[in-house]
Amino acid sequence: MPKVSVIMSVYNGEEYLREAIDSILNQTFEDFEFIIVDDGSTDSTADILASCKDHRIKVIPQKHLGIAEAKNKTVKASKGEYIAIMDADDISLPERLEVEASFLNHNRDIGIVSCSNYFVDEYGKIILTRSALIGDVLIQKKLLEDMCVNHCSAMIRRKVFEEVGGYRRAFKCSLDYDLFLRIAEVSKIENIKEPLHKYRIRIDSISVAKKVEQDAYAELARRLARERRQYGKDRLEDLNEKKLKAILKGISLEIKKKNNLHDMYYYWAERFYLRDNYKNAFRYLCRSILYRPFKKDGVSLFLKTFLHLILSQEIIDRLKFIKTHLIFKNSHCMKYKIIGINNRLKFKIRSGNANEVADNCALNGIFNEHEYDPDGFEIKKDNIIIDIGAHIGSFSIYSAIKASKGRILSYEPFPENFKLLKENIKLNKIENITVSEKAILDREEKVKLYIHKSYGCNSLIRKSKDYLIVQSIPLEDVFLSNKIEHCDILKIDCEGSEYNILLNIPNKYFDKIDKIVMEYHLFNDDNTINFKELLKILAANGYDCTNTKHEGYPTGMLYAKKKIR
Length: 565
What we know:
The two termini are about 40 Å apart. The strands form four sheets. Strands 1, 2, 3, 4, 5, 6, 7, 8 and 9 form a nine-stranded mixed β-sheet that branches. The protein has a seven-stranded mixed β-sheet with strand order 14-13-12-19-20-22-21, sandwiched between helices. The chain has three domains: about 5-205, Spore Coat Polysaccharide Biosynthesis Protein SpsA, Chain A (Alpha-Beta Complex), CATH 3.90.550; about 260-310, no CATH class; about 330-560, Rossmann fold (3-Layer(aba) Sandwich), CATH 3.40.50. It has 19 helices and 22 strands. The chain is an alpha/beta fold.
Protein backbone atom coordinates (compact mmCIF):
# COMPACT_ATOMS: atom_id res chain seq x y z
CA MET A 1 0.00 0.00 0.00
CA PRO A 2 1.46 3.40 -0.95
CA LYS A 3 2.17 5.95 1.78
CA VAL A 4 0.67 8.85 -0.20
CA SER A 5 -2.25 9.03 -2.60
CA VAL A 6 -2.11 12.06 -4.89
CA ILE A 7 -5.61 12.91 -6.07
CA MET A 8 -6.64 15.08 -9.01
CA SER A 9 -10.03 15.74 -10.59
CA VAL A 10 -9.98 17.43 -13.97
CA TYR A 11 -12.63 18.90 -16.23
CA ASN A 12 -11.48 20.34 -19.59
CA GLY A 13 -7.98 21.00 -18.28
CA GLU A 14 -5.96 20.30 -21.42
CA GLU A 15 -3.89 23.51 -21.37
CA TYR A 16 -1.77 22.84 -18.27
CA LEU A 17 -2.59 19.20 -17.49
CA ARG A 18 0.62 17.64 -18.79
CA GLU A 19 2.79 20.07 -16.83
CA ALA A 20 0.79 19.39 -13.65
CA ILE A 21 1.10 15.60 -14.04
CA ASP A 22 4.83 15.78 -14.78
CA SER A 23 5.40 17.83 -11.62
CA ILE A 24 4.02 14.92 -9.57
CA LEU A 25 5.85 12.20 -11.50
CA ASN A 26 9.14 14.07 -10.92
CA GLN A 27 8.82 14.16 -7.12
CA THR A 28 11.80 13.17 -4.96
CA PHE A 29 9.36 11.09 -2.89
CA GLU A 30 8.47 7.87 -4.71
CA ASP A 31 6.07 5.93 -2.47
CA PHE A 32 2.84 7.31 -3.95
CA GLU A 33 -0.05 6.50 -6.27
CA PHE A 34 -1.68 9.08 -8.53
CA ILE A 35 -5.47 8.87 -8.88
CA ILE A 36 -7.01 11.08 -11.59
CA VAL A 37 -10.74 11.37 -12.27
CA ASP A 38 -11.71 12.80 -15.66
CA ASP A 39 -15.03 14.47 -14.84
CA GLY A 40 -16.57 14.19 -18.33
CA SER A 41 -14.09 16.45 -20.17
CA THR A 42 -14.98 17.41 -23.75
CA ASP A 43 -11.55 18.70 -24.81
CA SER A 44 -8.35 16.67 -25.28
CA THR A 45 -8.00 15.88 -21.57
CA ALA A 46 -8.83 12.17 -22.13
CA ASP A 47 -6.13 11.87 -24.84
CA ILE A 48 -3.51 13.47 -22.59
CA LEU A 49 -4.39 11.10 -19.75
CA ALA A 50 -4.31 8.10 -22.10
CA SER A 51 -0.78 9.02 -23.13
CA CYS A 52 0.47 8.86 -19.51
CA LYS A 53 1.95 5.37 -19.15
CA ASP A 54 3.45 5.63 -15.66
CA HIS A 55 2.38 2.64 -13.52
CA ARG A 56 1.61 4.93 -10.55
CA ILE A 57 -1.20 6.67 -12.45
CA LYS A 58 -4.76 5.37 -12.31
CA VAL A 59 -7.26 7.20 -14.53
CA ILE A 60 -10.99 6.99 -13.79
CA PRO A 61 -13.34 8.41 -16.44
CA GLN A 62 -16.89 9.42 -15.51
CA LYS A 63 -19.72 11.57 -16.80
CA HIS A 64 -19.70 15.16 -15.63
CA LEU A 65 -20.96 15.03 -12.03
CA GLY A 66 -19.25 18.05 -10.50
CA ILE A 67 -16.20 18.72 -8.39
CA ALA A 68 -17.39 17.23 -5.06
CA GLU A 69 -18.39 13.92 -6.63
CA ALA A 70 -15.15 13.76 -8.60
CA LYS A 71 -12.91 14.50 -5.61
CA ASN A 72 -14.69 12.04 -3.34
CA LYS A 73 -14.34 9.40 -6.05
CA THR A 74 -10.57 9.92 -6.22
CA VAL A 75 -10.28 9.48 -2.46
CA LYS A 76 -12.51 6.38 -2.48
CA ALA A 77 -10.31 4.81 -5.17
CA SER A 78 -7.10 5.58 -3.29
CA LYS A 79 -5.33 3.60 -0.56
CA GLY A 80 -2.62 5.83 0.92
CA GLU A 81 -2.37 6.89 4.54
CA TYR A 82 -1.98 10.48 3.39
CA ILE A 83 -4.02 12.25 0.70
CA ALA A 84 -2.18 14.90 -1.33
CA ILE A 85 -4.31 17.38 -3.26
CA MET A 86 -3.27 18.39 -6.78
CA ASP A 87 -5.04 20.69 -9.24
CA ALA A 88 -4.83 20.23 -13.00
CA ASP A 89 -3.35 23.66 -13.73
CA ASP A 90 -0.83 23.95 -10.87
CA ILE A 91 2.74 22.77 -10.35
CA SER A 92 4.16 20.93 -7.34
CA LEU A 93 7.84 21.57 -6.70
CA PRO A 94 9.96 18.36 -6.62
CA GLU A 95 10.29 18.22 -2.80
CA ARG A 96 6.64 18.85 -1.97
CA LEU A 97 5.48 15.29 -1.22
CA GLU A 98 8.68 14.39 0.61
CA VAL A 99 8.56 17.44 2.91
CA GLU A 100 4.83 17.20 3.66
CA ALA A 101 4.85 13.42 4.26
CA SER A 102 7.84 13.75 6.57
CA PHE A 103 6.06 16.51 8.48
CA LEU A 104 2.98 14.35 9.06
CA ASN A 105 5.18 11.40 10.06
CA HIS A 106 6.76 13.48 12.81
CA ASN A 107 3.64 15.38 13.94
CA ARG A 108 0.89 12.87 14.73
CA ASP A 109 -1.50 15.51 16.07
CA ILE A 110 -1.61 17.38 12.72
CA GLY A 111 -4.47 16.43 10.39
CA ILE A 112 -3.66 18.78 7.50
CA VAL A 113 -0.36 20.24 6.39
CA SER A 114 0.00 22.72 3.55
CA CYS A 115 2.68 25.22 2.56
CA SER A 116 3.51 28.62 1.16
CA ASN A 117 2.86 29.06 -2.57
CA TYR A 118 4.30 30.85 -5.53
CA PHE A 119 1.57 32.60 -7.52
CA VAL A 120 2.32 32.36 -11.25
CA ASP A 121 0.66 33.84 -14.31
CA GLU A 122 -0.59 32.07 -17.44
CA TYR A 123 2.98 31.64 -18.65
CA GLY A 124 4.39 30.26 -15.41
CA LYS A 125 6.12 33.50 -14.39
CA ILE A 126 6.15 34.05 -10.64
CA ILE A 127 3.98 37.02 -9.67
CA LEU A 128 4.57 36.84 -5.93
CA THR A 129 5.15 34.49 -3.03
CA ARG A 130 2.18 33.92 -0.76
CA SER A 131 3.56 33.10 2.66
CA ALA A 132 1.41 30.71 4.63
CA LEU A 133 0.28 31.47 8.16
CA ILE A 134 2.29 29.44 10.69
CA GLY A 135 0.98 27.91 13.91
CA ASP A 136 -2.24 26.02 14.65
CA VAL A 137 -3.58 28.70 17.03
CA LEU A 138 -3.20 31.45 14.42
CA ILE A 139 -4.56 29.24 11.64
CA GLN A 140 -7.62 28.15 13.63
CA LYS A 141 -8.45 31.78 14.45
CA LYS A 142 -7.97 33.03 10.90
CA LEU A 143 -9.76 30.07 9.30
CA LEU A 144 -13.09 31.23 10.71
CA GLU A 145 -12.62 34.46 8.75
CA ASP A 146 -10.96 33.30 5.54
CA MET A 147 -9.41 30.30 3.80
CA CYS A 148 -5.84 30.66 5.09
CA VAL A 149 -4.68 27.12 4.22
CA ASN A 150 -3.90 26.40 0.58
CA HIS A 151 -6.06 23.44 -0.45
CA CYS A 152 -4.23 22.91 -3.73
CA SER A 153 -0.97 22.15 -1.89
CA ALA A 154 -2.41 20.33 1.14
CA MET A 155 -1.73 16.82 2.41
CA ILE A 156 -4.45 15.32 4.63
CA ARG A 157 -4.49 12.30 6.92
CA ARG A 158 -7.01 9.83 5.52
CA LYS A 159 -8.23 9.15 9.09
CA VAL A 160 -9.42 12.72 9.66
CA PHE A 161 -10.76 13.06 6.10
CA GLU A 162 -12.99 10.04 6.63
CA GLU A 163 -13.90 11.10 10.19
CA VAL A 164 -15.55 14.31 8.95
CA GLY A 165 -17.16 12.69 5.91
CA GLY A 166 -15.06 14.12 3.05
CA TYR A 167 -16.28 16.75 0.60
CA ARG A 168 -19.98 17.58 0.87
CA ARG A 169 -22.06 17.40 -2.32
CA ALA A 170 -24.13 20.47 -1.45
CA PHE A 171 -21.07 22.66 -2.04
CA LYS A 172 -20.59 23.52 -5.71
CA CYS A 173 -17.82 25.95 -4.71
CA SER A 174 -15.65 26.41 -1.61
CA LEU A 175 -16.04 22.72 -0.77
CA ASP A 176 -12.39 22.72 0.30
CA TYR A 177 -13.08 25.54 2.79
CA ASP A 178 -16.04 23.62 4.22
CA LEU A 179 -13.88 20.49 4.53
CA PHE A 180 -11.04 22.30 6.31
CA LEU A 181 -13.40 24.03 8.75
CA ARG A 182 -14.76 20.61 9.73
CA ILE A 183 -11.31 19.04 10.03
CA ALA A 184 -10.20 21.99 12.20
CA GLU A 185 -12.79 20.89 14.76
CA VAL A 186 -11.19 17.45 15.23
CA SER A 187 -7.51 18.02 14.45
CA LYS A 188 -4.70 20.54 14.35
CA ILE A 189 -3.62 22.22 11.09
CA GLU A 190 -0.17 23.48 10.14
CA ASN A 191 1.62 25.15 7.25
CA ILE A 192 5.21 24.73 6.10
CA LYS A 193 7.13 27.96 5.55
CA GLU A 194 8.86 26.94 2.34
CA PRO A 195 6.97 27.45 -0.95
CA LEU A 196 6.49 23.94 -2.35
CA HIS A 197 3.83 24.65 -4.94
CA LYS A 198 3.00 27.01 -7.81
CA TYR A 199 -0.59 28.25 -7.96
CA ARG A 200 -1.70 29.59 -11.33
CA ILE A 201 -3.66 32.85 -11.58
CA ARG A 202 -5.60 33.36 -14.81
CA ILE A 203 -7.48 36.61 -15.35
CA ASP A 204 -9.84 35.11 -17.94
CA SER A 205 -11.01 32.47 -15.46
CA ILE A 206 -12.34 35.06 -13.03
CA SER A 207 -15.92 36.11 -13.74
CA VAL A 208 -18.44 38.11 -11.75
CA ALA A 209 -20.87 35.22 -11.45
CA LYS A 210 -18.21 32.72 -10.40
CA LYS A 211 -16.67 35.06 -7.83
CA VAL A 212 -20.00 35.85 -6.22
CA GLU A 213 -20.92 32.16 -6.16
CA GLN A 214 -17.58 31.22 -4.56
CA ASP A 215 -17.95 33.89 -1.90
CA ALA A 216 -21.55 32.86 -1.19
CA TYR A 217 -20.57 29.24 -0.58
CA ALA A 218 -17.61 30.36 1.54
CA GLU A 219 -19.91 32.43 3.73
CA LEU A 220 -22.25 29.44 3.98
CA ALA A 221 -19.33 27.31 5.17
CA ARG A 222 -18.52 29.88 7.87
CA ARG A 223 -22.14 30.05 9.06
CA LEU A 224 -22.35 26.27 9.28
CA ALA A 225 -19.06 26.17 11.20
CA ARG A 226 -20.45 28.64 13.74
CA GLU A 227 -23.56 26.48 14.08
CA ARG A 228 -21.47 23.37 14.79
CA ARG A 229 -19.45 25.20 17.41
CA GLN A 230 -22.61 26.43 19.11
CA TYR A 231 -24.98 23.48 18.76
CA GLY A 232 -22.69 20.50 18.05
CA LYS A 233 -23.98 20.03 14.47
CA ASP A 234 -25.06 22.14 11.51
CA ARG A 235 -28.33 22.10 9.57
CA LEU A 236 -26.99 21.31 6.09
CA GLU A 237 -28.51 17.83 6.02
CA ASP A 238 -31.90 19.30 6.97
CA LEU A 239 -31.93 21.77 4.07
CA ASN A 240 -33.65 20.72 0.88
CA GLU A 241 -32.47 22.12 -2.44
CA LYS A 242 -35.05 24.92 -2.42
CA LYS A 243 -34.11 26.17 1.05
CA LEU A 244 -30.40 25.96 0.25
CA LYS A 245 -30.86 28.03 -2.93
CA ALA A 246 -32.82 30.64 -0.97
CA ILE A 247 -30.06 30.96 1.63
CA LEU A 248 -27.36 31.25 -1.06
CA LYS A 249 -29.41 33.83 -2.95
CA GLY A 250 -29.65 35.97 0.18
CA ILE A 251 -25.92 35.71 0.81
CA SER A 252 -25.18 36.57 -2.83
CA LEU A 253 -27.25 39.75 -2.61
CA GLU A 254 -25.25 40.82 0.45
CA ILE A 255 -21.99 40.16 -1.41
CA LYS A 256 -23.05 42.11 -4.49
CA LYS A 257 -23.80 45.12 -2.30
CA LYS A 258 -20.22 45.00 -1.04
CA ASN A 259 -19.03 44.93 -4.66
CA ASN A 260 -15.82 43.12 -3.73
CA LEU A 261 -14.95 41.96 -7.24
CA HIS A 262 -13.49 45.43 -7.86
CA ASP A 263 -11.26 44.99 -4.82
CA MET A 264 -10.04 41.60 -6.03
CA TYR A 265 -9.11 42.89 -9.49
CA TYR A 266 -7.49 45.97 -7.99
CA TYR A 267 -5.45 43.83 -5.57
CA TRP A 268 -3.99 41.79 -8.42
CA ALA A 269 -3.39 44.91 -10.51
CA GLU A 270 -1.32 46.34 -7.69
CA ARG A 271 0.65 43.10 -7.29
CA PHE A 272 1.42 42.98 -11.02
CA TYR A 273 2.47 46.63 -10.98
CA LEU A 274 4.92 46.03 -8.13
CA ARG A 275 6.41 43.15 -10.13
CA ASP A 276 6.90 45.46 -13.17
CA ASN A 277 4.32 43.43 -15.11
CA TYR A 278 2.53 46.49 -16.45
CA LYS A 279 0.62 44.71 -19.20
CA ASN A 280 -1.22 42.43 -16.77
CA ALA A 281 -1.59 45.27 -14.27
CA PHE A 282 -3.39 47.31 -16.92
CA ARG A 283 -5.63 44.35 -17.82
CA TYR A 284 -6.72 43.90 -14.20
CA LEU A 285 -7.27 47.63 -13.74
CA CYS A 286 -9.52 47.72 -16.78
CA ARG A 287 -11.55 44.85 -15.31
CA SER A 288 -11.80 46.51 -11.88
CA ILE A 289 -13.11 49.82 -13.23
CA LEU A 290 -16.09 48.01 -14.76
CA TYR A 291 -17.45 47.30 -11.29
CA ARG A 292 -16.64 50.50 -9.43
CA PRO A 293 -15.02 53.82 -10.39
CA PHE A 294 -11.55 54.40 -9.00
CA LYS A 295 -10.87 56.41 -5.91
CA LYS A 296 -7.77 58.60 -5.67
CA ASP A 297 -5.26 55.75 -5.25
CA GLY A 298 -6.85 53.84 -8.15
CA VAL A 299 -6.58 56.78 -10.54
CA SER A 300 -2.93 57.19 -9.58
CA LEU A 301 -2.15 53.51 -10.20
CA PHE A 302 -4.03 53.55 -13.50
CA LEU A 303 -2.09 56.58 -14.76
CA LYS A 304 1.28 55.20 -13.62
CA THR A 305 0.57 51.86 -15.28
CA PHE A 306 -0.54 53.56 -18.48
CA LEU A 307 2.61 55.70 -18.54
CA HIS A 308 4.80 52.63 -18.10
CA LEU A 309 3.15 51.06 -21.14
CA ILE A 310 3.60 54.04 -23.45
CA LEU A 311 6.85 55.64 -22.28
CA SER A 312 10.43 54.45 -22.67
CA GLN A 313 12.33 53.08 -19.67
CA GLU A 314 14.64 56.11 -19.70
CA ILE A 315 11.67 58.45 -19.22
CA ILE A 316 10.22 56.20 -16.51
CA ASP A 317 13.50 56.25 -14.60
CA ARG A 318 13.53 60.04 -14.77
CA LEU A 319 9.96 60.24 -13.46
CA LYS A 320 10.86 57.93 -10.56
CA PHE A 321 13.81 60.19 -9.75
CA ILE A 322 11.55 63.25 -9.73
CA LYS A 323 8.96 61.45 -7.56
CA THR A 324 11.55 60.58 -4.93
CA HIS A 325 12.66 64.19 -4.68
CA LEU A 326 9.07 65.46 -4.54
CA ILE A 327 8.32 63.21 -1.58
CA PHE A 328 11.39 64.57 0.16
CA LYS A 329 10.92 68.12 -1.12
CA ASN A 330 12.65 69.50 1.95
CA SER A 331 15.70 67.28 1.49
CA HIS A 332 17.67 70.06 -0.21
CA CYS A 333 17.56 72.10 3.01
CA MET A 334 18.16 69.15 5.35
CA LYS A 335 20.72 70.12 7.96
CA TYR A 336 23.40 67.77 9.15
CA LYS A 337 25.99 67.76 11.87
CA ILE A 338 28.90 65.54 12.80
CA ILE A 339 29.17 64.31 16.37
CA GLY A 340 31.95 62.42 18.13
CA ILE A 341 31.48 59.11 19.95
CA ASN A 342 33.96 57.87 22.59
CA ASN A 343 36.67 60.23 21.26
CA ARG A 344 37.22 57.79 18.43
CA LEU A 345 34.26 57.60 16.09
CA LYS A 346 32.38 60.24 14.15
CA PHE A 347 28.81 60.11 12.90
CA LYS A 348 27.01 62.36 10.50
CA ILE A 349 23.41 62.75 11.66
CA ARG A 350 20.42 64.87 10.71
CA SER A 351 19.75 68.06 12.61
CA GLY A 352 16.65 70.00 13.57
CA ASN A 353 13.77 67.52 13.09
CA ALA A 354 12.35 64.18 14.24
CA ASN A 355 15.16 62.38 12.41
CA GLU A 356 17.71 63.94 14.78
CA VAL A 357 15.89 62.35 17.72
CA ALA A 358 15.82 58.98 15.93
CA ASP A 359 19.53 59.22 15.00
CA ASN A 360 20.56 60.13 18.56
CA CYS A 361 18.38 57.39 20.06
CA ALA A 362 20.01 54.81 17.79
CA LEU A 363 23.51 55.93 18.79
CA ASN A 364 22.61 56.03 22.50
CA GLY A 365 21.11 52.52 22.37
CA ILE A 366 24.26 51.12 20.78
CA PHE A 367 27.11 52.96 22.49
CA ASN A 368 25.74 53.92 25.93
CA GLU A 369 22.98 51.44 26.81
CA HIS A 370 24.54 48.50 24.90
CA GLU A 371 21.09 47.17 24.01
CA TYR A 372 22.47 45.06 21.18
CA ASP A 373 25.45 43.48 22.97
CA PRO A 374 24.51 42.74 26.60
CA ASP A 375 26.26 40.09 28.67
CA GLY A 376 26.42 36.85 26.72
CA PHE A 377 26.04 38.62 23.38
CA GLU A 378 29.49 40.18 23.17
CA ILE A 379 30.89 40.71 19.69
CA LYS A 380 34.10 38.82 18.97
CA LYS A 381 36.92 39.63 16.56
CA ASP A 382 36.06 37.05 13.90
CA ASN A 383 32.24 37.30 14.07
CA ILE A 384 30.01 37.34 11.00
CA ILE A 385 27.09 39.68 11.66
CA ILE A 386 23.95 40.50 9.66
CA ASP A 387 22.42 43.90 10.40
CA ILE A 388 18.80 44.25 9.17
CA GLY A 389 17.58 47.81 9.48
CA ALA A 390 21.06 49.30 9.62
CA HIS A 391 19.72 52.89 9.79
CA ILE A 392 22.68 55.32 9.67
CA GLY A 393 25.20 52.61 10.56
CA SER A 394 25.55 52.89 14.32
CA PHE A 395 25.42 49.13 15.08
CA SER A 396 27.20 48.13 11.86
CA ILE A 397 30.15 50.41 12.59
CA TYR A 398 30.24 49.48 16.28
CA SER A 399 30.26 45.79 15.27
CA ALA A 400 32.86 46.29 12.55
CA ILE A 401 35.33 47.69 15.07
CA LYS A 402 34.66 44.93 17.59
CA ALA A 403 34.76 42.24 14.85
CA SER A 404 37.87 43.64 13.21
CA LYS A 405 38.65 40.31 11.54
CA GLY A 406 35.03 39.49 10.85
CA ARG A 407 32.42 40.55 8.37
CA ILE A 408 29.35 42.80 8.65
CA LEU A 409 26.45 42.72 6.16
CA SER A 410 24.23 45.80 6.44
CA TYR A 411 20.76 46.18 4.92
CA GLU A 412 18.95 49.54 4.86
CA PRO A 413 16.24 50.29 2.25
CA PHE A 414 15.46 53.95 3.08
CA PRO A 415 17.50 56.17 0.70
CA GLU A 416 18.34 58.95 3.18
CA ASN A 417 19.46 56.44 5.82
CA PHE A 418 21.41 54.43 3.24
CA LYS A 419 23.24 57.56 2.14
CA LEU A 420 24.25 58.36 5.74
CA LEU A 421 25.18 54.72 6.33
CA LYS A 422 27.70 54.84 3.48
CA GLU A 423 29.01 58.26 4.51
CA ASN A 424 29.53 57.18 8.12
CA ILE A 425 31.38 54.05 7.02
CA LYS A 426 33.66 56.22 4.90
CA LEU A 427 34.01 58.82 7.66
CA ASN A 428 35.31 56.17 10.05
CA LYS A 429 37.43 54.37 7.45
CA ILE A 430 35.69 51.03 7.99
CA GLU A 431 36.51 48.32 5.44
CA ASN A 432 34.74 45.15 6.65
CA ILE A 433 31.13 46.25 6.06
CA THR A 434 29.16 45.26 2.93
CA VAL A 435 26.07 47.43 2.41
CA SER A 436 22.84 46.83 0.50
CA GLU A 437 19.85 49.10 -0.14
CA LYS A 438 17.44 46.15 -0.20
CA ALA A 439 14.73 45.48 2.36
CA ILE A 440 14.45 42.09 4.04
CA LEU A 441 11.06 40.35 4.06
CA ASP A 442 9.81 36.84 3.33
CA ARG A 443 9.94 37.23 -0.44
CA GLU A 444 11.72 38.84 -3.38
CA GLU A 445 9.42 41.60 -4.53
CA LYS A 446 9.03 45.34 -4.99
CA VAL A 447 7.21 46.59 -1.88
CA LYS A 448 6.06 49.83 -0.29
CA LEU A 449 8.28 51.40 2.36
CA TYR A 450 6.02 53.75 4.35
CA ILE A 451 7.53 57.03 5.50
CA HIS A 452 6.67 58.39 8.96
CA LYS A 453 8.12 61.90 9.04
CA SER A 454 6.65 62.78 12.43
CA TYR A 455 8.79 60.33 14.39
CA GLY A 456 11.70 59.74 12.03
CA CYS A 457 11.11 56.06 11.34
CA ASN A 458 10.00 54.12 8.29
CA SER A 459 8.22 50.80 8.02
CA LEU A 460 7.27 48.08 5.58
CA ILE A 461 4.29 47.23 7.79
CA ARG A 462 2.87 50.38 9.42
CA LYS A 463 1.16 52.38 6.70
CA SER A 464 1.22 56.11 6.00
CA LYS A 465 0.20 58.32 3.08
CA ASP A 466 3.80 58.70 1.85
CA TYR A 467 5.81 55.76 0.62
CA LEU A 468 8.59 54.66 -1.70
CA ILE A 469 8.84 51.47 -3.74
CA VAL A 470 11.86 49.43 -2.67
CA GLN A 471 13.20 45.98 -3.51
CA SER A 472 12.87 43.26 -0.90
CA ILE A 473 14.58 39.88 -0.66
CA PRO A 474 14.11 36.97 1.79
CA LEU A 475 16.65 36.41 4.55
CA GLU A 476 17.73 33.13 2.99
CA ASP A 477 18.94 35.11 -0.05
CA VAL A 478 21.32 37.00 2.24
CA PHE A 479 22.93 33.70 3.20
CA LEU A 480 23.00 32.32 -0.33
CA SER A 481 24.20 35.42 -2.19
CA ASN A 482 26.95 36.13 0.36
CA LYS A 483 27.92 32.43 0.72
CA ILE A 484 27.35 32.47 4.48
CA GLU A 485 27.32 29.11 6.23
CA HIS A 486 27.25 30.53 9.76
CA CYS A 487 26.05 33.82 11.27
CA ASP A 488 27.24 34.67 14.77
CA ILE A 489 24.75 37.49 15.37
CA LEU A 490 21.58 38.42 13.50
CA LYS A 491 20.49 41.93 14.48
CA ILE A 492 17.01 43.12 13.48
CA ASP A 493 15.42 46.54 13.94
CA CYS A 494 12.84 47.08 11.20
CA GLU A 495 9.74 48.65 12.75
CA GLY A 496 7.35 45.72 12.80
CA SER A 497 8.45 43.52 9.90
CA GLU A 498 10.61 41.34 12.16
CA TYR A 499 7.77 38.81 12.45
CA ASN A 500 7.38 38.55 8.69
CA ILE A 501 11.09 37.75 8.43
CA LEU A 502 11.56 35.25 11.25
CA LEU A 503 8.20 33.47 11.11
CA ASN A 504 8.77 32.65 7.44
CA ILE A 505 12.43 31.73 7.26
CA PRO A 506 12.99 27.98 6.60
CA ASN A 507 13.94 26.19 9.82
CA LYS A 508 17.28 25.03 8.44
CA TYR A 509 18.54 28.63 8.58
CA PHE A 510 18.06 28.75 12.35
CA ASP A 511 20.79 26.10 12.47
CA LYS A 512 23.12 28.66 10.87
CA ILE A 513 22.34 31.51 13.30
CA ASP A 514 24.01 31.50 16.73
CA LYS A 515 22.42 34.59 18.33
CA ILE A 516 19.51 36.88 17.48
CA VAL A 517 19.22 40.42 18.88
CA MET A 518 16.01 42.15 17.89
CA GLU A 519 13.85 45.11 18.75
CA TYR A 520 10.29 43.80 18.83
CA HIS A 521 7.11 45.81 18.26
CA LEU A 522 3.66 45.22 19.76
CA PHE A 523 1.56 47.75 17.87
CA ASN A 524 -1.57 45.57 17.78
CA ASP A 525 -3.07 42.19 18.76
CA ASP A 526 -1.59 40.45 15.70
CA ASN A 527 1.89 41.60 16.77
CA THR A 528 1.30 40.15 20.23
CA ILE A 529 0.19 36.81 18.79
CA ASN A 530 3.15 36.78 16.37
CA PHE A 531 5.57 37.57 19.19
CA LYS A 532 4.32 34.63 21.25
CA GLU A 533 4.49 32.37 18.19
CA LEU A 534 8.04 33.54 17.47
CA LEU A 535 9.13 32.66 21.01
CA LYS A 536 7.74 29.14 20.53
CA ILE A 537 9.53 28.70 17.19
CA LEU A 538 12.84 29.93 18.61
CA ALA A 539 12.54 27.59 21.59
CA ALA A 540 11.73 24.68 19.25
CA ASN A 541 14.87 25.49 17.27
CA GLY A 542 17.13 25.35 20.31
CA TYR A 543 17.28 28.97 21.51
CA ASP A 544 17.18 30.33 25.05
CA CYS A 545 15.16 33.54 24.88
CA THR A 546 14.90 36.57 27.16
CA ASN A 547 13.19 39.87 26.53
CA THR A 548 12.95 43.33 28.04
CA LYS A 549 10.33 46.04 27.52
CA HIS A 550 10.92 49.71 26.74
CA GLU A 551 9.02 51.58 29.45
CA GLY A 552 6.16 53.63 28.04
CA TYR A 553 6.48 52.21 24.51
CA PRO A 554 4.99 49.16 22.72
CA THR A 555 8.51 47.94 21.99
CA GLY A 556 11.31 46.01 23.64
CA MET A 557 14.39 43.89 23.06
CA LEU A 558 14.47 40.16 22.37
CA TYR A 559 17.65 38.15 22.93
CA ALA A 560 17.85 34.61 21.57
CA LYS A 561 20.94 32.43 21.99
CA LYS A 562 21.54 28.85 20.93
CA LYS A 563 21.68 26.46 23.84
CA ILE A 564 25.08 24.92 24.55
CA ARG A 565 25.03 21.31 23.35
